Amino acid sequence: MQVTNKLNLPKALIKAVDIEPHNKTNKELSATTLLKGVKEIILTWRHWEELVVDVSDRIWALFGTAVHSLLETESENEFSECEFELKLENGITITGKIDNYNMETGEITDFKSGAVYKVQLGDFEDWRKQGFVYAFLLVKNGFKANHCRFIDFLKDHSKSKAKFDSGYPQSPVYIFEFSVTDSLLFEAKDFIKEKTDNYLKYIDTPDDEIPPCSDKERWASETEYAVMKTGNKRAVKKFTNRFEADNLAAEKGAGHYVEIRPGVSRKCADYCICCDHCNFYNNIVKNQTSEE
Fold first, then answer.
1. How far apart are the C-alpha atoms of 198 and 39, rounded to whole Å?
2. Which CA distances in Å does 232 have to 229, 252, 263?
3. CA-CA distance, 184 to 272, in Å (whole number)?
4. Which residues make Cβ contacts (< 8 Å) with residue 188, sequence separation at least 6?
5. Domain boundaries in the chain?
6. Residues 88/193, Cβ–Cβ less than 8 Å
7. If 0-12 CB within 10 Å is exposed, 13-18 middle and 19+ buried, where does residue 83 land?
8. Residue-wise pLDDT tens digits, 13-63
9. Distance CA 146, CA 143 (A)
10. ∠252-258-264 over CA atoms, to 5°?
11. What's the start-to-end Cα distance of the chain, in Å?
12. Does residue 202 contact residue 42 with C-beta atoms inside 8 Å?
């Protein structure tokens, strides 16, 4: 990967930016890599040397690394940056680096430096999956796993907003946690098998023939069908079903029509480093953004 420095930031920052690939070989997948779409995983590996990122776009990642370094304290039963791996029957090796693990209690802790938006959205499925993959790795390596905690430091938290909005996170630190159960470990096993089998299915497929990442993996919003009235800027009503929108427009009569508002894949343009090598992005998302 090539790191540019458009803002002419100090060289120390460039040196501090981690530009090593997350996985050592294409037969090794980390717990966090498993959360990505198969197309993103494969394209990132294939085009790693061609990828370009500016150091300014890696500042928050650097902030997260600094937080991890400050919290590297260990005791008799508590360990930081614990690395585990497991080779599956299909030949893929799953790896995981756990920020903090208490051997006595079986508690897994992961530190995040995130945004208020995620807490307000309340969608922690990616953390849940990351946690149960860690738990699965621990158990398969002969260690106990009883509980997962994700401690999120909200880098854009506003005290003034918290004071006047009860629905806003009241603290700059948010904790998402859950217990590790047998059913969760079975879910982890199924998730890992399904993702790695699907990955192997397309590992040698040409770039443009690999199916696009799922809506969830692309952080895609649903396409909306807005019933509009001629001359008005605001929709009469919005639907995610075209049939319902057409029916209401017909019911309202003359001057009403349906405006299609395509869903937006938020991750593709702003958070996927291999998007320029993805035909789905170049043929659909990029064109859609240009039109907007």
1. 10
2. 6, 14, 22
3. 29
4. 129, 132, 133, 135, 136
5. 2-209, 224-291
6. yes
7. exposed
8. 777 776 777 788 899 999 999 999 999 999 999 999 999 888 888 877 777
9. 10
10. 145
11. 30
12. yes
Neighbours of 183 (CB within 10 A): 8
Give the separation between CA 272 and CA 18, rounded to whole angstroms. 16
Helices (runs of H) and strands (runs of E) counted in the chain: 11, 11
- At 229 the three-state DSSP class reads strand
- Pick out the chain residues at pLDDT < 50: 290-292
> Which CATH code is given to the segment(s) 2-209?
3.90.320.10
DSSP letter at 33 equals G
Give me the half-sphere count of Cα atoms (radius 13 Å) on the Cβ side of residue 94: 27
Q: Is 125 exposed, middle or buried (0-12, 13-18, 19+ CB in 10 A)?
A: exposed
Q: Which residue(s) pair with 85 in the sheet? A: 95
Given a contact cutoff of 8 angstroms between Cβ atoms, the answer to whether 95 and 31 are in contact is yes
Q: Which residues contact 30 (CB under 8 A, 6 or more apart)?
A: 22, 23, 94, 95, 96, 97
The secondary element (H helix, E strand) that includes residue 54 is strand 52-54
